[in-house]
């Protein structure tokens, strides 16, 4: 998680964030899906980047489609978003070659591109996840950054790419890291990337034009509502790959308040109980109002809400049916 992690959801893991002002440093993150998290700039001790491939789960289905696992809220909000007249055309008009080149060159110039010959274990994790989700693996970059985050970019028909920060690699286990890659692949599988890019650029463009502030505010609210729904879908994609709800929930927990030094003390079951407590506290009329006010301007659902959602889906007949199809195919 985009969800995305930190910036406003360019197309993520995982903690909610609000939009930030546009600058050359944030331009790339504004237009992709990310895995949100704390904006803390505290330094993180550098370690050698070492990732060992984990055993691949069975392919869910050679014919797996995005709608097979798309969250109902994602379906609903995507329809609402697409109903905005002229959004496609306006979004494409606002995407210029300069902004695209800035984002592409920034990755190539400041990151390490993962391949068969570079960070091969991480490359294998991505390939395995893409195979399970029945989608093409995008380019993958690792960037030095103390803020744990991952995000995806896909615009103008160009080959998409995923960026993972080194601090996220340090924070997560191998299986958890694969869950993050699967989450980002979920954005691509569901075509979230292009839509999120259009939405971000459209909002920024509207804010810059006199008299269009109200329209921009409306579009921003619609965008965030859709973004939060898209995150729930991509958490499902992560679960389909790692096939263990505790792995996905552990990612959410660590992004909410984890650290490498605390890894052996974190308890997924306790975090799920925390999520149930949040539901109880927010069930009153006042609690419901406060909860909705909290979420209105967030690019990602709260980590406790996402944990509860993925826990429930892991026990659903829909999820079990997808897994049983994979088992029958292997037999």
TrEMBL record:
Q: Name one GO molecular function term.
A: metalloendopeptidase activity
The record's comment on cofactor binding reads: Binds 1 zinc ion per subunit.
Record flagged with keyword Magnesium: no
Give a GO biological-process term. proteolysis
Keywords in UniProt for this one? Hydrolase, Metal-binding, Metalloprotease, Protease, Zinc
> In what residue span(s) does the Peptidase M48 domain sit?
120-313
Cofactor(s) for this protein? Zn(2+)
Q: Could you confirm whether the keyword Hydrolase appears in this record? A: yes
Residue ranges of the TM segments? none
InterPro entries, per this entry?
Peptidase_M48
Which family is this sequence assigned to? Belongs to the peptidase M48 family.
Q: What is this protein called?
A: Peptidase M48 domain-containing protein
Species this chain originates from: Rhynchospora pubera
